[in-house]
Structure to design on (406 residues):
């Protein structure tokens, strides 16, 4: 059955080239449709300056802008930190973790404004289309989903075509053929794609960096920052209590000064394509290093090892856009339970692009200085012989019975 055209669409609007040209295109595609441009302030700096005027000039009938920085930090970034989730060794999931938040508020705005559809400007080749649409489906499957890049009549399928469309329709955009990088910025990170970055044989240029200095320009003297944690969440920097979003912002500034948190990654997209990007996550890198130090100090061995394994699955769920999946929610319960003992402080040394936890302490630490020393006081060394005999018994039997098969 043919789907009825939408009456009112809430579009995830950033003010960039893609979403700016999509607004008037939707007017042409669906005559009479009302458009709500939704912009989320999640720490992208000055990118939202003049966003309402720009959206209306591009064809929006309504504009909704919400400051979601605290919610983003407290309900998305920090739960992910407690899981210590990293995708493919290097990616701290900055774009991945933001999309479910934006999509959730699109659904809320749709309910508030009486819209019957939600939409986005993500392409048909990337991960973001999945992240947006899975969230829409999870939170309100009755809303129609408008995805122009997957519409067979959508003709703006290149940067050049979009720029030409903007010029023809007097759409205000800042992008040009000379601004070569595709970027996504929020409180947690900034990503860069395009130009020389797309070819893995090329070294990315230092001038693509925004939040961090190049290593060659980092100070010659190291800096130290002390992060305080309570139940797995950071609560202070150098003894000063801070709100989560302010804490991340402060660590971004400190880490960026010392070139911390830059990674170059050729990753496996969910859709089966390999892509290459440069990611800057200065504050997040400091937090992960500090959190790791307290994990090592406070977690019992079997629990820690299990947490490491589950963190890989959790990272996949976030990367795949399954934030509102019941498995992610169940894993969150596990990690929040485990993190009850992650309380204390970690001192992190920042020097020439590296963040290294050099000291940590916790009232719940399992580290016993006497047991860890070479002194045998308080430790029954005779118990070690029986332990080794029993632990190694299967290997001993195999060695006796099957040694010639090795």
């Amino acid at each position: 059955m043919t789907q009825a055209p939408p009456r009112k669409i809430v579009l995830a609007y950033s003010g960039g080239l893609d979403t700016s040209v999509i607004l008037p295109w939707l007017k042409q595609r669906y005559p009479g449709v009302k458009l709500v441009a939704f912009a989320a302030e999640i720490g992208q700096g000055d990118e939202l300056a003049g966003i309402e005027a720009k959206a209306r000039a591009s064809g929006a009938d309504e504009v909704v802008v919400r400051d979601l920085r605290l919610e983003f930090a407290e309900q998305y970034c920090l739960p992910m930190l407690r899981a210590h989730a990293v995708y493919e060794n290097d990616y701290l999931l900055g774009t991945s973790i933001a999309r479910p938040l934006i999509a959730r508020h699109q659904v809320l705005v749709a309910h508030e404004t009486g819209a019957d559809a939600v939409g986005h400007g993500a392409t048909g080749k990337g991960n973001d289309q999945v992240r947006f649409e899975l969230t829409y489906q999870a939170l309100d499957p009755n809303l129609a989903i408008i995805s122009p890049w997957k519409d067979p009549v959508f003709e703006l399928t290149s940067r050049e075509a979009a720029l030409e469309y903007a010029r023809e329709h007097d759409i205000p955009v800042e992008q040009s053929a000379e601004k070569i990088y595709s970027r996504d910025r929020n409180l947690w990170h900034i990503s860069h794609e395009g130009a020389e970055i797309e070819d893995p044989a090329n070294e990315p240029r230092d001038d693509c960096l925004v939040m961090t200095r190049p290593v060659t320009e980092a100070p010659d003297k190291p800096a130290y920052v002390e992060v305080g944690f309570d139940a797995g969440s950071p609560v202070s920097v150098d003894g000063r209590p801070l709100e989560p979003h302010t804490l991340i912002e402060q660590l971004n500034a400190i880490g960026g000064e010392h070139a911390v948190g830059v990674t170059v990654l050729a990753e496996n997209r969910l859709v089966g394509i390999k892509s290459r990007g440069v990611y800057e996550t200065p504050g997040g890198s400091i937090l992960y290093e500090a959190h790791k130090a307290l994990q090592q100090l406070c977690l019992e061995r079997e629990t820690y090892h299990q947490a490491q394994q589950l963190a890989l699955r959790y990272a996949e769920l976030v990367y795949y856009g399954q934030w509102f999946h019941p498995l992610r929610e169940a894993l969150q319960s596990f990690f929040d339970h485990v993190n009850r003992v992650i309380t204390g402080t970690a001192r992190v040394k920042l020097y020439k692009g590296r963040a290294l936890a050099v000291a940590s302490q916790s009232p719940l630490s399992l580290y016993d200085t006497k047991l860890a020393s070479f002194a045998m006081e308080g430790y029954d060394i005779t118990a070690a012989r029986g332990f080794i005999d029993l632990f190694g018994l299967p290997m001993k039997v195999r060695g006796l019975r099957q040694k010639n098969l090795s």
About this structure: The first strand starts at residue 8 and ends at 12. The chain has a mean pLDDT of 94.
